[in-house]
Design brief:
The complex is a heterodimer of chains A (136) and B (125). By secondary structure, chain A is an alpha+beta fold. Chain A has 4 helices and 5 strands, in the order βααββααββ. A 5-stranded antiparallel β-sheet of chain A has the order 1-2-3-5-4, covered by helices on one side. In chain A, β2 and β3 form a beta hairpin. Chain B has a single domain, classed as Transcription Regulator spoIIAA (2-Layer Sandwich), CATH 3.30.750.24. Chain B has 4 helices and 5 strands, in the order ββαβαβαβα. Classes of the chains: A alpha+beta (136), B alpha/beta (125).
Amino acid sequence: MSIALADEIRIDSESDIVVARKLVRDTATSLGFGLTDVTRIVTAASELTRNIYIYAGSGIMRCRPVASDARRGVELVFEDKGPGIADISKAMTPGYTTSRGMGMGLPGSKRLMDEMDLKSAVGQGTTVVVRKWLHK
Amino acid sequence: MTAENISVISLRNLLLVTVPPDPDDETISALQQKILESMARHDARGLVLDISTVQTLDSFFARTVMETVQMVALMGGRTVLAGMRADVAVTATQLGLSIGATQTALDVDRAFDLLQGEIQGGRTA
């Protein structure tokens, strides 16, 4: 994959979720994604930044264009040093939540994006990487 | 975006609330509070929630909307969600959101027709 500079946003408060959404919207739009894909990507970013805020209290989101073979797309990285996820397969089950949420943030975001990688260690934190490719 | 920017319009016995395009969580919670206060103050029978400018309907937003519909119902009012954009509808469905039995309409005009018909129908029945 090519190296591109990533825009980075600190997630410390609820209002940072709006800032993250705006960055992702602008990036995805400028890359040429259509309206429905932009909405999918922004909605996934909203879910995953809220997870950082709810579960870890703070963290960062990075957003950058990516290219692989003939494909171009956008990559979003969500990183926190929060409590981590004890059971990833449970966390990926729709409806399962350890907060007051609806339990659709992770499984829903995976459906909205093309790829999702999730790494988590209890007591150390969680990193979620999602990608969406442009379809030509 | 602040809570003061939320407009609640009372028309006959219905409320029209326009949801801002990209509200933060605080604004969404304030919106709910304002709707419930206005239901009581205006003795409203129904609520039209205009979401035609909403760009992102994530699970927090959706849960608050569904809670609001439920609370308005407990206060004797009916809610119609009006004007959801096609891209938002596609995304909300793929995300896994469900609106339950909440009524919807393509736009505010149709939402008003729906509510007025129901409320008048309810009176004569």
